[in-house]
Amino acid sequence: MRTLIITIVTFVLARPVFAGTEPPPFITASDLMTDTDAFYFRYLNPDPALTAVSDWPIVGHVLDVGSNIIDARIIADRLNQGLPVDEQPAFRHVKKIVDECAARLGVKAPYLFVENNPHPNAYVTRLKEPHLLVLTSSLYELYKDRPNELRFVIGHELGHLKCNHIRCHTVGHALMRFIVGDQQTSGIKEDFIAHVMVGQLLSWYRHSEMSADRAGLLCVNGDLETAQKALLRLQHGTKEDVDPEIAAREQIAFEKLPFVKIVRKIRSYRTTHPYIPDRCLALKQWTTTKHYTSVADRKLTSPSNQEIVITEIQVTGLPNTDFGFGTESDPIIKAAVGSKEYNSGEFSNNNNPKLADLGWSAPYVPNTRIIIEVLDYDGASGNDFIGSCVLPVRSAKSGTGKAQLRRDIKEPSSEVNLPNVMVKYRIVTPKKK
Fold first, then answer.
1. Are residues 385 and 292 in the same domain?
2. Cβ–Cβ under 8 Å, residues 62 and 171
3. 335-373 pLDDT, tens per residue?
4. Among 276, 296, 316, where does a domain finish?
5. Both 289 and 324 in a single domain?
6. Residues 91 and 157 in one domain
7. DSSP 145-187
């Protein structure tokens, strides 16, 4: 009972930080992305400029098709199934919302399409700019009398653009349709098979949706109630207003019935979107974090010219990965911050490598993350992946980050005693030359 009460209070009672006041002067992709989204995104598409699908680590075996051909098909399908309405007077109010959300998030406004479709949905598509924002006719009818909720939906979709999700979404969707098939007609066996085969991709998909929800929240000035109602409307599909507090309470009550929570969890394995009550709860929880406060209370009018400098990295407790004499690992430590990546070189027979007096630097972006990757050197067959972790940097202050090295990124792992990672870093203002 105590857990139930705490969950409901967390879901509903705390209020948004900046509703009704000035919004953040600028928003970065790091502000929006969940740590898991940013972490997996590196392994899906480490360089957003890559156009060759065969170069992407996780989807490397998918046929590499030119982006122009993909875009041509996307545009042709949208013209066949919908109507571009950027310049239509009847949709001027929607176009205004699109432009305002784009300005808030710092992205180029996409072309607006309305698609004749009985299923409420909105999505962004097309690999190259300008992208397309598609609202189905049923979604427009559902939200047209609730412009603030529509603003959340549009802000969510533009959040995918801000976070550079669209390229991975496009190819990932095609891959999953081939492997996973129709989500509506599957059984539990198919759900589990999908999880095993494309579990990482599906997990990233779900976290990318939560990142985009954050963009939607910021586009409605942190009005959590509006955001929750907009999400719940997609679930109940009516024009009636529902109470998010009651929705949370009933959700928890039904999950207490025998096996419901277990089956629901298994079902989630092959979904690209988290369940909407879970999204509402995640959004609420985000508004109580330092991450959210750092965005809502931002005073800078533009990103600073500061740098983050990694000064020390230590990894302890690496597994023995070599065979024969000297079974200890020969680790290589890689560190990535934004677009910058550094490599330590090989440590010979060392399961507790340490790097000191480093000067690995990158431009500092609010809410940036340091991603550490450890490989085992193998001159004969190529370096073997040992593990990776993400270390969030939540303030513009020097500090120390600690995490455990995840061993289940590229293949399943049941290890309990995971290696530990410690990173020291400084936030500095470079001297003018």
1. no
2. yes
3. 999 889 999 999 988 999 999 999 999 999 999 999 999
4. 296
5. no
6. yes
7. T-HHHHHHHHHHHHHHHHTT-HHHHHHHHHHHHHHT--GGG--
